[in-house]
What we know:
Elements: H1 2-11, E1 30-31, H2 42-59, E2 61-63, H3 66-74, E3 78-80, E4 85-87, H4 90-99, E5 104-106, E6 115-117, E7 121-124, E8 132-134, E9 141-142, H5 145-157, H6 178-189, H7 201-215, H8 219-224, E10 229-232, E11 239-240, H9 242-253, E12 257-260, E13 263-266, H10 274-295, E14 301-304, E15 306-310, E16 317-318, H11 322-338, E17 342-345, H12 355-371, E18 375-377, E19 382-383, E20 388-390, H13 391-408, H14 415-418, H15 437-442, H16 458-463, H17 469-482, H18 491-506
Parallel strand pairs: 2-11, 7-18, 8-20, 10-12, 12-14, 13-15, 14-17, 17-18
Antiparallel strand pairs: 1-7, 2-4, 3-4, 5-6, 8-9, 15-16, 19-20
Amino acid sequence: MEAEDRRRRRRGRGAEAAPQPSREVNYRQLRNPFPQMEVFPADQIADMHESALRVLQELGIKCLLPEARRIFALAGARVDEDSEMVFIGRDMVEAAVASAPKSITCRAGARRRDFTLELGSLVFQPGAGAPNATDLERGRRAASGRDYVEFLKLTHHFDVFQMISPQVEPQDVPTNLRHYFTTQAQMELTDKFPFFFSRGTPQVMDCFQMLSIARGLSDDEFSSNPYCYTIINTNSPRTLDIPMAQGLIDFARHGQMSIITPFTLMGAMAPITVAGAITLSHAEALAALTLTQLTNPGAPVCYGTFTSNVDMKSGAPAFGTPSHFQASLAAGQLARHLGLPWRSAAGSASNVNDVQAANENQFGLWGCLMAGATVIIHSAGWLEGGLTVSFEKMICDAEVLNMVAELCAGAQAGADEIGFDTALSEVEPSGHFFATSQTMERYNTAFYEPHLHDYANFGTWTERGAIDANQRATGVWKDILANFEAPKQDADCLSMLQDFVARRTQEGGAPPES
């Protein structure tokens, strides 16, 4: 009785009837709270960096774009035009690393969506670039414009996705018009940080202009901050093709961000060892980074790697493996050696959203987290090694990412949290804490609220239809799409954007360059 009297006095008259606050989250400015793991000693990481510099200087990189070779040659690199090989000296690479920004403020469509990329920050993207989509109701299919829009809405819905990814390829939209479709959808349906493919200067310039129109930016404003990004994949081993090299140049010239990502698979496009594969990936990333800085010193660029192994029985890519985990750790060590923000990836080779898909994605995800990755792509929805993005898997994986984001907030242990007066002293031995002052003040906001997981006991779960997580995920994504509301945008800017798309479409659009 005395404990109950103390609770009433603390809460005050009428406090029991006061409305309880709802739980609010902000997953937009995350910091990685986990200590970084190391897979190799510091001296071996230094050897890998030195070996990568030797690769660039002695073995060289094949660069298929004449303009890129001219930029390298003007800076003093040795270029063999007959073989299209570029040999880059270590001084040139070191100067490029020195000029690359160590912190990048990315400007989204709304200021509350801005974020900073630097060592220690943490940003998630869902699965990207798949030609197929799948869900339990419609099955596996070639991805369409409808799929692209629906994945875009799901990405916008979850606060834990700070960047828009290239999601799926809308294959029912012609390639000369596809960039209009995807860019217009991003400008109209989300205010998050957008993605543009690098498929030739005409398409890139169209996308830049569309973004400037939609956001109301002058040319100077656009070039002064990164308002969008692209992903640059080298062709391992040691090849930089025409659209990727041109993308590096175009984005650097206009002050927009490139995320450089060699995609190396141990035993196939890279040495079979973790150290050898990451050394090759590091060399390719340094070559691409150098091109951006020769084009425009200080251009925003994110170091990246995506290295896993192949299944040596079939030659198929494998993800979420121990080697994938180790490769992420090594890439993190090299990124810290350079001091640059960097990108890694999770993902799954499973064909369906099953326990294999969950295990592989989470094992890959924790490799990225323990490695200190700044940007984690393919963190949700990715199946078949990137051939398919799953609606249900995106919902399942987003649950895990939300819980990771909760950990990023950190635990507090001040007087209010310890609760000597508001919890510990209010409960007698063998009592309970359901009604303490601390519990009553916090019960609506204390714990993470799942959007998918079901904590009911077996009996209650059975009475509700015994619906498993995969089936529940279908209901979740359908509900999100049914209730989706696009963020408010400037109507005049959107009208001008639509006019631009209509005019460029009538003119024939812009086919991708290869």
